């Protein structure tokens, strides 16, 4: 593959050198994770530590002050971070997707300003989904022109993951002045931005995934980005963040349950050893879970390789090659989701067989691994992923790069008829 201006691309770095900059921070994050989980404390400090250390710029090319890591290396870092606290990775998901979009946009338009912002520490939150009476295919958040001639944004979002910690918002909207769907890159520091921490999920509690209200927020034209120009492998990228999160959850669960087994002194009269740590059946439980966690990481990183190929193909100027690479990335991420979700949900349940009823105490929060994995695995329904994979395999049906969720139009028709 021949690519021009390699110095402007992020093709990979020395992983241990890059990871070494952040591992002490990951450890600090891990030390407070249980307390944040028990008391639903949002990770403002941990995210600030990462900001200050330049974690949000690891994918920015070296020529612009970043680390230039590949996507495989990015997701390897995210697995390490998810092992420390999976909520933090989820909160940064929108940021790294926006960075990836700007990396792709750099092919045709210099993104120096955004790269400088990322290197400075700026983070981007996500705000795409609307709830309430919004029909599928529609978006109520709008860009309009005010009477004074300024462009303004109005709307409300839910699942605005990470926005409460961010400097910018990756906001999906409809631009009435150009009649197209857009991404509005809105500062969180301007008047008219209201962020509410009302996410009430039973897992991933501290990701800042609540309500965002945008009230007459002014925006410059150059911060309105046509959605049709969004990077093509975005759905796969978003999904692989989930896969990395799940892999980190799995590793953390195995580590914590192993620690509990090692220190356990109570045994059952019909067990197999005088100490739980020597009981063959308990070792079997831990061994299987460890193997499942290993497989989850291996699959996640393999899907990341497909994303790297999609990124590189964008700069090769061959539409067919790029299409094939994007199809491969979408398929790999979908297949990975199906397998990793089942692996991690299984291991975070079966690990309880290694301990007694005391493992259910809320003080230890051992259920957090399953709860967090269950919520992450619910974002993109597994049954639909299985269906689109099967349709591709059997019928070569196109894979859905972009999909939406919203109210069924049938419901509105019934209301009108009534």
Summed up, the helix count is 12
Q: If you compute it from the alpha carbons, what radius of gyration comes out, rounded to the nearest whole angstrom? A: 22 Å
Instruction: Supply the CATH class of the largest domain.
Output: Mainly Alpha
Number of domains: 3
Helical fraction? 40-55%
Q: Can you write the helix and strand succession as a string?
A: HHHHHHEEEEEEEEHHHHHH
Number of strands: 8
Overall shape: globular
What is the structural class?
A: alpha+beta
State which percent range the strand residues make up.
Answer: 5-15%
Low-confidence stretches: 414-418
Instruction: Please identify which CATH superfamily of the largest domain we are dealing with.
Output: Butyryl-CoA Dehydrogenase, subunit A, domain 3
- Span between N and C termini? 60 Å
Taking the sheet with the most strands, its summary is:
8 strands, mixed
Q: In the CATH classification, which architecture of the largest domain applies?
A: Up-down Bundle
Protein name: Monooxygenase
Domain Acyl-CoA dehydrogenase/oxidase N-terminal: 25-111
Domain Acyl-CoA dehydrogenase C-terminal: 243-380
GO molecular function: acyl-CoA dehydrogenase activity; flavin adenine dinucleotide binding; oxidoreductase activity, acting on paired donors, with incorporation or reduction of molecular oxygen, reduced flavin or flavoprotein as one donor, and incorporation of one atom of oxygen
Report on the architecture of this protein.
The chain is of the alpha+beta class. The protein has three domains: about 10-120, Butyryl-Coa Dehydrogenase, subunit A, domain 1; about 140-230, Butyryl-CoA Dehydrogenase, subunit A, domain 2; about 235-395, Butyryl-CoA Dehydrogenase, subunit A, domain 3 (Up-down Bundle), CATH 1.20.140.10. It contains twelve helices and eight strands. It has helices spanning about 15-20, 25-40, 45-55, 70-85, 85-105, 110-120, 235-265, 280-315, 320-350, 370-375, 380-395, 410-415, and strands at about 125, 140-145, 150-155, 170-175, 180-185, 195, 210-220, 225. Strands 1, 2, 3, 4, 5, 6, 7 and 8 form an eight-stranded mixed sheet that branches. α7 (about 235-265) packs antiparallel against α8 (about 280-315) and α7 runs antiparallel to α10. The longest helix is centred in the C-terminal third of the chain and has 34 residues, at about 280-315. It is globular and about 80 Å long. The termini are far apart. Mean pLDDT is about 95; it is low at about 415-418. Belongs to the HpaH/HsaA monooxygenase family. Keywords: Monooxygenase, Oxidoreductase. This is Monooxygenase. Pfam families: Acyl-CoA_dh_2, Acyl-CoA_dh_N. GO terms for molecular function: acyl-CoA dehydrogenase activity; flavin adenine dinucleotide binding; oxidoreductase activity, acting on paired donors, with incorporation or reduction of molecular oxygen, reduced flavin or flavoprotein as one donor, and incorporation of one atom of oxygen.
